[in-house]
Amino acid sequence: MQKKLILYLSYILFFSVQACNADQWPALRATNSAQGSIVYNGEFPLQEWHYIYKSGRRYKQGLAVWASPALAVVAGHPMAFIGGYDQTMHALDLVTKKAVWRKICNAEIGSAPVVGSINGFDVVFWGANDRSVYAFSAFDGKKLWTRELIEPSTTLGQVEVTSPYLTGTRLYISCFAYDKSLSRNEQSGLLFCLDKHTGKILWRIKAGSGFLSAPVGFVIDGAQYVAVAARRGLVQCFSVSGDRPEKVWEFQMPHEVLGSPAVTMETNPPMMYLGSKYGNLIAIDAVTGTEVWQRMAGNWIDNTACVGMLDGKPAVFVGSHDYRVYAFDAQTGKELWNRALGGEIYSAPSFFNIFDKPYVAVASLDNHLYVLDAKSGAVQTSYFTGQPIWDKVTKGETTWGSPVTISAGSNTVLIHGSFNDVVYTLPLTGECSLTAMARSVGSLWWSLLTVFVVFTGIVLPVCILIPLKKSN
Amino acid sequence: METWLDKIENLLASLFANIKLVEKGLLGLEGSYVELLTVLALGMLAVIPIFVPRNNRQIWRHVNQLFGLAIFVFVVFTCLGVFGMIRNFYRGLHEIGRENIIALYYCSVPVTILVTSMLFGPAFCGWICPTGALQEFVASLTRKWTKVHKKMGYSFSPPILIFAIFAALVFLLWMYRLSVTRLFFIEDASIYWSQVLIILLFVLAFRMREWDLKLRRLRILSFLIIAFGAVMSMRITSPVHFGFAKVYDPASFLATVMVALAALAIPMVWCRYLCPWRCVIAWAGKNSVRYIDFDESKCISCSKCTQVCDLDAVVNGKIDIHECHMCFKCVDTCPENCFSVRDDWSRSCKKS
User: What is the ipTM for the molecules in this complex?
Assistant: First the structure.
């Protein structure tokens, strides 16, 4: 009891100091530039942890992770929040390596939560496929509010609720619920605006007739904008400074879009980046909605790009199903480097710094996580994250979880909900049990030579020649 | 963390789960229909050799092999090649009692193979195995040519040497291409097995007649390496792995091409010298219910059985059960019907 009281007091004290705290993880990938990382300057060591949860519920045996985590420092402890197909939101304390709380929803959670601040308290917001948005205290999992976005109906089919986007007192979220009573073109992909304090729906607008991406926001000349991409490729930008949204521009991508836009204000003009299912990465002027440049990858780009700073210049990173990670100059679109990895890159990259050196982390379909030098694309390290438990994933129909990073110098860790039902916390600088043995081209040839020498010099004589001589 | 409502809900769920005893017993299989289908499909394929008539048995066998290939490619997710079977079996055994559903997932294929081998002999190798089927189908292209060498006992053969050089070049060029387009891992060990296969081709070009039987010991070494890797939780991919996994595995693909290429020169070369699973199947099928009986009194020493066996498992009617794949080629070829397939359910039987 005493311990709990002390914890509560320290929690209140902590937040009284940070009463004006901004949202820690306000968007799908932390910020509108989708870097997927936070900085932690605390002293608690972050260690390797493989989180597995078996709920014992009959309809689902464990945590099937398809969503990305959100990170926040809560009461001094870095925490990860991640939802799964076990319909549960898990709040994981990365210091104590314990699940602090879990909340069961009425449907799968396929999108990442966000972490915002209400009256100085950290709050986790997420959308579940039960057509609802949830707001729970990040510290202890106490419910603040839940809001049903779409009325229940017997004709409703598949539902997909995206990650929210937080700005000011508002929460933006997209939701698509397939209505079996309507034809395909009459379906509604809706963008909602909620009051983040109460969950009250302020407005909603139809932004497409199918699935929508998670919304992303940005401010230009003091005016707030929110952009959302429809699965069919129509990107729409709304001015949301007033009571009602006003469409500012729209842009039709050449193909389907699975990821969400990433925005940077470091370019002139501010730009938005979005990849298409058939491999186009397009930079769109965030002010006018016109194409600035376009680059082509060798295969699908089905997840969100991310923008990071390299030597003071913005660079956009994106992974493709052609096994490659690409880095482009965000302003001009000039290719800085590309690097082939072991499998299709299905994840959004996470951009972070360790001791001011920039890195990019991506997850690949060869069941490895890679950490690359963001300047050269050289592979720094890689981790084997296990075979999928159920190898029935279908490419190109959904986006899967992406890694996120806590940048903390020698304490830096990478958190990834792998599709083998495990949420991994992996130290990037110290020893890690999952470190894979990725090799350079040179070492590959050396290992082949070694096998040749060992086989012909040891195995063959010992197994064949000596026994043969003896038998003769 | 767990509220009292959760507790009540879980309690009620467990209470109701216990009422239906039959359902409770089957709960372990819930959500594992793919594995059930695997067990059923492989079991069925293993039983087919019992029923097919002697007439056109080899055609039936090839049809069975084609079905086996289709099942492994389109149904089985867990096999992941011959190496993966050993590794996953070890992992599945660990899960028994903790995660039975996962245990079933990983053990279903190896257990089916072992059980059917114990009953029907190593029929899996001759009738189902996709790697074996691949080699056999490929080798049929050069059967006439290899048959000549087989008669001579595979003494030094310049064509095999030239072929080995060609295979080595294909391997090296392909490796070079892969090395610059893809990141390699230690786990991509199938390339080492294919490298060894290439070296073996050179060895066999000079010393096949003398070293053939000795070289088959390499299978034990192969098994030990894989078993060691399984215990050490090392992930080692095998040839044909790419056929089972949705993940594109170019190293495994290259190894499969090498196996197929090598099989053009030496029939069933993978099964002869490198297949680690072969040791286990031979052990399981040592005292199988089903076996091939040889009536020496009828034998006219025509050596047709010796010639027809791709594995050199039959020498003048004597069958080496460590090598036999139960393909029944010898049975079907013998002009004097010296061979007969017998089922002996007596456990005391000891076959030579």
Answer: 0.76
